[in-house]
Amino acid sequence: MPAGFLKHPFMSQHAVDACDDSAMVHAMLAFELALAEVQETSGAVPNGVSQQMRSQLESANFNVADIAEGIASGGNVAIPFVKQGRALLADELKRYWHQGATSQDVVDSALMLLLKPRLAALDALLLRCCSAATALMEAHIDTPMVGRTLMQQALPITFGVKVAHWAIGLEQSRRRLSYIELPVQFGGAVGVHSGWDVLGLEWMDALAERLGLAAPVLPWHTDRYPIHALGSALDAVAGAAEKIALDVSLLTQTEVGEVAEPSAPGMGESSSMPHKRNPVRSAMIRAAAKQVHGHTSVLINAAAQPLERGLGEWHAEWAPLIESALLVEGALEQVAVLLEGLEVNPANMWRNLAATGGGIMAEPVARLLTPTLGADRAKAVSAEAAETARLEVRAYADVLADQPEIKGIVDADALRKACDPALYLGSSSAQVIRTKKWLENN
């Protein structure tokens, strides 16, 4: 598969490099060496053995290609890795290598080690995105724009409150991800530390501390809550990023033109149409998010696993889990640049507010006219005047002022105010202030 063309562009390139085959080998080795160290501390391994192992294996060259080839016969990467590691050790050390562990202990713990720095990177990116969103929403706290429901013009809002919702989505998903624990895995063949009795649980806790991972209550070979929780939390971040990209892409349409993605040489160009400036960042974010949603489905459907070891379910988790993290990180890198450099066009927002000839203000006008005309007639008059304003390209307030049922009866100043979108923004500005306080307090 041409991964460099079809998969990696949607991921964080730094994260891709940090999670390659060699990194997985390094993470598995870290688990095995830490296991030897905690066993030595308890007296199950002679003094000095763990350091000898470290000296011999940290400088050894593991053959990644051979390990990959060996997966086909064993079903997971730990089996050929353990074999190769044992072969690289001096004869007197071989018996202490991988003692009391099983393949799933190695793979699950290694995956947690790979993901730990990725979660830290995601938290930093989310904070960066939230900061950029906060600056945007404050700058446009009073910038009126069209609020749209079912893709149609509805009532005025501010651009600031739209961004506030983006910021809340980012922060909520950040907080959810921050609660995720990455537990060590250590249970042995059937999850009960066979042959080691209570030492097994002691080793499990000591391993967690040494590796900087969480200590689970019990080994979680077929209790996949940690994976389910992490996968769904990553999906929540992807959803928050996708919401921003979807809104931005709709607002960048030529006929709308209310925002534009940050410009850069060659960014958004078409292979055949020189005039185009495509919302490429939004497309990249949405493409990454769609893939994460698919991966999440795999992880959720693998949550129930049989007996003491999954048969295909566990194996199915590996790629979707790592790829989800890499895709989310890639998406957030794009979101950060997008929000930090988003071009906002208030003039086009005002233009679009007037696109219906003032009809977007028909609701407040109807409310003003109801005490005089009654609800049904007020609604009809406000709608008819909006259509006339659109067809004759006249100001909505002027058309209303000429209506015989209104002229001289309804206060002209009140009528003109009812037609002003900037005076019908509801709690938009208050919501921005409320959001800013919430972000600052969390």
UniProtKB/TrEMBL annotation:
Pfam families for this protein: Lyase_1 (PF00206)
Residue ranges of every copy of the Adenylosuccinate lyase C-terminal domain listed in the record: 357-436
Record-linked SMART domains: ADSL_C
GO MF annotation, one: lyase activity
InterPro entries: AdenyloSucc_lyase_C (IPR019468), Fumarate_lyase_fam (IPR000362), Fumarate_lyase_N (IPR022761), L-Aspartase-like (IPR008948)
UniProt keyword annotations, A-Z: Lyase
Family statement drawn from the similarity comment of this UniProt entry: Belongs to the class-II fumarase/aspartase family.
Protein name (Swiss-Prot/TrEMBL): Adenylosuccinate lyase family protein
Source organism (scientific name): Vreelandella sulfidaeris
